[in-house]
Structure formats: structure tokens, C-alpha cells
Amino acid sequence: MSDVVLINITGRDRKGLDAKFTRILAEYGVNILDIGQAVIHNHIAFGILAEIPDSKDFSSIFKDMLFEGHNMGLKIDINRIDNDNYEKWVHAQGKERRIITLLGRAITARQISAVASIIAENHLNIDNITRLTGRISLKTPLANPKASVKLSISGKPLSILDMRRKFMEISRETGIDISFHVDNIYRKNRKLVVFDMDSTLIQGEVIVELAKLANAGEEVNKITESAMRGEIDFKESFIKRVALLKGIKEEQLAGISRNLPLTDGADIVAKTLKGLGYKLGILSGGFTFIGEYLKEKLGFDYMYANELDIENGVVTGKVVGDIVDGEKKAILLRQIAQKENLALDQTIAVGDGANDLPMISIAGLGVAFNAKPIVRKKASNTISSVGLDGLLYLIGIHEREIRHEINKVI
User: Fold this and answer.
1) Residue 151 Ramachandran class (φ > 0 left, ψ -120 to 50 alpha, else beta)
2) Partner of 364 for a Cys bridge, out of 8, 61, 132, 345, CB 3.0 to 4.6 A?
3) What are phi and psi of 77, to 5 degrees?
4) What whole-number percentage of the chain has pLDDT above 70?
5) What percent of the chain is predicted at pLDDT more than 90?
6) Residues tagged active-site
């Protein structure tokens, strides 16, 4: 019967290392059952699980590997794997898999330790850890640094709800965002992202800015905050707020569009995702005059929002057509996905308010961005420690890929 051995090679990395050791194994007709490596600060951990045919002398392979390792200043560990243990390992494949992404301005040992402890408590295994952000200079630190690592874990959690609750506690205590979602075929095949507009793509709420023009700012702001917290029905609150806008002149609307700043990272998200072939949409409880401006500015494919009714160049205090509320957003997401021949699992929805929860809950990846407490509590994935471009790391895009797409546009 053939032997199964685990070969671990560690030490300073150098070019040609993989070629030299696999060439030795090739000379003995060895089959590779599993292989993987990681390099951190020019030091390598290279592992090979190999099947050695019956006719081959294990000691000869061991000797040749040790000799080459000595010449290269590397440590070589070779251990036989019991056949029964190997078969158990084989049959363990197919376990549930999930991705946990940590995102913040910096990542500390305390944060990783806390997350890893919860993973262990749920009898899960960390199979792989990958850094998604670029290397950090200590001499010339960035003004707004980002740090993100992705953990691939396997196994069935004892309690998903308990894990999410504890992850939220870590986020609150340490200031880091933690994303926790299923790893499946759709994760790498998502092609549609829809965003809320106010306080997501742009800073602030447009209706509040309009209310200032109508001298109703304080009253509208109170209703808006209450609606975003989910305390009152969005549609009812929207009708009340729009009624207070009566009398604003149409020419004043253009100034609002030009002066509302984008959310930090919104342009990077748009350029990167468009470059990677994603379709992008705005699903907003705000207004079309801002939505059309953003659609053109950021190169979005879809835009749905509320249209202010205007007569004789003056806002009437009503809207044209159906109101885009939370349920309407979910309906629109389904319709766009169907039009693009995509499953809902291939979609991503991002928003901050209670009226975004319906679309966040049905999307393959729902993300609460700088969200109100009720939204953070119900969403599995949140971004609050960095800008909107943090979404790219939650999707699993590496910083070098982001830079590549941005440079193509430039």
C-alpha cells in the first residue's frame, strides 16, 4: 500500500524553491494530494501532502529533501499520515464553509484573538487567512489607513445567531467591522450591486437640505430621523415631509445636486466595480433629480427614486407616481436581477436606514453602511469604521485589484 506523508518546508523564501522540491518528488513519481503555501515578510510556509507509491523508497525521498533543505537553509519536516486519518480527512470535505472579514483602520491582536476565540467556541476550523489590504509603512503612514483580513472557516456553527451577537459586541468594543457570510458558488459570481442614495452614496439627506430652503428644516429632520430608526412608517413619514417642501422653486434644485458631497470611497467603489463588470443601481427613497445626477457622474446602470411634482416651476408638495419605500426597493432589486438574468444570491444591497432592510435581507450579500442601530442589529454585514470602499474588501477584492481598476480609468 502506498504511503501518505505531510511535508512542511519553512524558512526564508527564495525564487525557485517550489520548483526544486517538487522536482525531487517528481523523480520518485509522487502524487500530490494537497498543496499550499503562504509567504509573510519573505518567510515561507510551504506544505505538501503526498502519496508515495509502493515501489518507492520513502527514506531516499526523505534524505534528498533534507539535503536540499540544508543547502537552502530551510527546515524540512516530513511525517507519515495514518491511512485511516487520511480517509477521515477526505470524507470531511463538503463541510459548511463561511467567510469572516475583518475591516478597520488597523487590525490588532486583540481583535483577531476575540474573533478566533468565538470561532473555536463554535467548533469551527480556520482553514486560511488572507490579507486583503496592502502593506503598511510605519515611516510614512497613510492619513486614512485601511486594514482588512479574510478568514475562511469550515464546519457547522453551534449557533449562528450567537456568533453574530458576539461579533457585534467585538465591533462595538474594538471599533472594527466584522462581516460573516456563507461561502458558496455565488460569492465569486455576484454581478449586481444596488445602493441606497442618501447617507450611503452621498453625505446627508437631500430632503433635509430641501427643507432648509422651505424653512422647515427642524420639523423635517425630526421626521426623517424617526423614519430611519424604524419608529414610524416610511411612506407615511415621506408624505408628511414632502408636503412641507411646497413652494420651493425648481431652479433651486440644481444647486442641491452640485453641492452635496459624495460619501468617502463612493467614487472608488463605482470605478472598481464597473471595471470588474458589475452592474450598479441606485434604489432610493430620495429624489430623481439627485439620482439622475449621480447616475451620470458615477456611471451607474439603474436608478429608481421619487419624482417631485412641479407645476409652473414650483414644488407642489407631492410626488409623481408610486413612492419608493422599503418594499418597493426589494421589488425593484428582484426586477433588475431578473432583467440581468441573475439569481438574488448574485446580488449585493447596501443601505443605512430601516427602509433598506427589505432589500438588504433578500440580497445575496446585504450590507449596512454607517447604519442606524436597528439596521446594524438585523444586517449580517456592516461597514462603519471606514468609507464606502470598504465594501470592496467585504466582497473579497484585494487592494492590488482595486488599484489596477482605478489606474485603468485614470
Assistant:
1) beta
2) 345
3) -120, 125
4) 98
5) 62
6) 196, 198
